[in-house]
Amino acid sequence: MPATPPPLDPALCRSRQNALRSYLAENDLDGAVFFDRHYVYCLSGFWHAQPLTPTAILVKRDGGVTVVTHFEDADAPAADEVVPYVPNHLFTLKPNLSGCVAEVLNPHLAGLATIGACQQTPAALLEGPGCRDISEDYQYLRRRKDADEVAAFEFTIHCADKAYETARQMIEPGVEEVEVMAAMLEEATYAAGEFLSGWGQDFQCGVPGGFARPNREIEAGEIFVLDVGVGVRGYRSDLCRAFAVDGNPTDEQLAAHARVLEVMKAGEEYLKPGQSCREMYDFVHGELDGWNGYQFFHHAGHGVGLDAHEVPRINPGWDDTFAEGDLVAFEPGLYGDSLRGGLRLENNYLITADGHRQLSHYPLDLVLQDS
Hints:
about 375 residues; alpha+beta; Creatine Amidinohydrolase, Chain A, domain 1; Creatine Amidinohydrolase; 8 helices; globular
């Protein structure tokens, strides 16, 4: 039987609203409007399950939280008001659904001079206040995850583990990439017990990554790098595993795998509050790029939660620092033609007051034995 996603705590939703209000006050904003259904859930506890139709939330600086949705039985335990809109006529969707939301939301914006908005908010449809983009600021504001959010995130890891177990059992020469991807999606969906809010991202064999290719069979000698993000009610894990297709990796592949594991273990020491993410990247890059002639050409990880990539970023393009409450994906790898796809391994961690707690535990082996 599938499990049930753990609900968010209404008291903690209210706490997140108050943190947002403090930000609004500090930045001379009268409120915030988000059309991102993930953010609506995080702040109100209401999950808008239908991806075809939009939802929105208004958080006023001086109090009051309004959720807009077309669900008549909407349960928004941390909202003060739920305002309905009509998205269809005789079940045919209207052409401007965001406009439908804005139409019923606009009266609630009266008297507000300037509001913050995320990148999904259609500012041109909102009447009255000016809009200021706070998408990046809001990532920093909500980077510290509460206990209910960590529980929601761990549930997505449980779903990813089920998907990986399915992949492990079916990977063998001659199986198509699309077959593996579809089977993993089916199992993750069943484990979640509902339609996933997110799914991706790498399902190509013999190369570092990419979407599954039609009619492409996986081959003996290749490494299948599977980088999977499972989203449930907005929260999304990000985990990567690498499997030897025929269960018989070469000595070269085994050596590269051992090196990535070694650097992963050493790199975990950097996962602690106050640590420079750029310094962590420099360590990982220095240990991997050029080792035995292979490459390490991407970031070493990033924050996770409600977006696929969040702060903090283990990337030299930013100067982030780990803080208690961060949810982080750490993903070292090695790539080269002779590795037949390369190797990337990724775990998820919670940054704690005294270091970190590893949240993902599915085995990292190239070849897994039946239990």
